[in-house]
Amino acid sequence: MSPAPTPFQLLPGAAGSPVVLHVPHSSRTIPDHVLHGIVLGGEALEGELDHITDSHTAELAAGASAVCAVTPWRFVNGLSRLVVDPERFPDDREEMQAVGMGAVYTRTTHGAPLRPPGDAQEPLLDRYFHPYAGALTAAVDERLAATGRAVVIDVHSYPSTALPYELHGAGPRPPVCLGTDGFHTPPGLLARAEAAFAGFGGTGLDSPFAGTYVPLKHYGTDRRVSALMIEVRRDLYMTEPGGPAGPGLGALASALARLVDSLADL
C-alpha cells in the first residue's frame, strides 16, 4: 500500500518575510478513498485533471522563492481540487455552487457528473477542507506575529479559452489577470504587481476570475492582511490543456520574485 499523500505543506521562508505564496490548485493527486466516490475514470478523469489543474504553479512559486532576496513562505496544496477546493466558501455564499463546483465539486468543467447525486460532502470537508483552512490561518497569524502584517499572494493559472463552467468567461482573458478584494488589496500592492508583470503583454483586473484568498478569521476585518491573486494564462508557459511547461515558466518566476521583493516596504 502506498503512503497517504500529504494534504498540504507549509514551506518555511525567512523569519522577517510577511509574504505567503498560496498554491491551492497545482496538484493532480487524489487519495484512493476519494477516487472511489468519483464517477470518472481512466482517460475521462485524466482529461478533467488536465482542464482543472493549475499545472506547474507549484514550480512557479518555488522558482520565484529560490531567487527572492528575502525568501517568502509557501503554502502548497498537495491534493487535487477534485478532493476539495480550499478556495471556495463552504456554504451558500459560494457562487460556484450554481455549476456544481462549490467546496466539493459535483460537476466537471464541462458540466458532466463528477460525483453521484446526493453524495455526502461533510466527510470531505471535515477531513480536508477545514484542516487546510485552519493551517493556512495559522500561517497567516504567524506572519502577523513575526512582522506585524501578512501578504497572501494566490498563485493560479487559467486556460486561454474559456471552459463551460466559468460564470464570467465572456470577459477579457489577459496574459496575467490580477484578482483583487476591495478591503484586502491596497493600491500599492496592485501597482507593484502590475509593474512586476508588465512584460508579458499586459495585465487585467478581475477578469476572467475575481477576488483573492483571505482566511475567514481575517476577511473583511483585519487590514494588516493584504492579498492579491495572480492568474497566469496558461499559453504563456505551458502546452494546454495539461502538457509540459515551457521557457515562459522561468520568466514568470522571475516576475513573481520581483513582486515579492518589492513588498519589503509596502
List key phrases describing it:
single chain, 266 residues, alpha/beta, seven-stranded mixed beta sheet, 6 helices, 7 strands, 29% helix, globular
**Could you give the order of the helices and strands?**
EEHHHEHEEHEEH
How many strand elements? 7
> What is the helix content?
25-40%
Average pLDDT rating: 96
* Low-confidence region ranges: none
Strand arrangement across the biggest beta sheet: 1-3-2-4-7-5-6
Classification by helices and strands:
alpha/beta
Strand content: 5-15%
**Gyration radius, in Å:** 18 Å
Overall 3D shape:
globular
Largest sheet features: 7 strands, mixed
How far the N terminus sits from the C terminus, by CA atoms, comes to 48 Å
Q: What is the overall number of helices?
A: 6
Your description of this structure?
- This protein is an alpha/beta fold and 266 residues long.
- Strands 1-3-2-4-7-5-6 form a 7-stranded mixed beta sheet.
- It contains 6 helices and 7 strands; from the N terminus they run E-E-H-H-H-E-H-E-E-H-E-E-H.
- The protein is globular.
- Helix 3 packs across helix 6 (248-262) and helix 5 (187-196) runs antiparallel to helix 6 (248-262).
- It has helices spanning 32-35, 42-52, 57-67, 122-147, 187-196, 248-262; strands at residues 8-11, 19-23, 73-77, 150-158, 176-179, 203-205, 225-233.
- Helices cover 29% and strands 15% of the residues.
In short:
By secondary structure, this protein is an alpha/beta fold. The chain has helices at residues 32-35, 42-52, 57-67, 122-147, 187-196, 248-262; strands spanning 8-11, 19-23, 73-77, 150-158, 176-179, 203-205, 225-233. The protein is globular, with a radius of gyration of 18 Å.
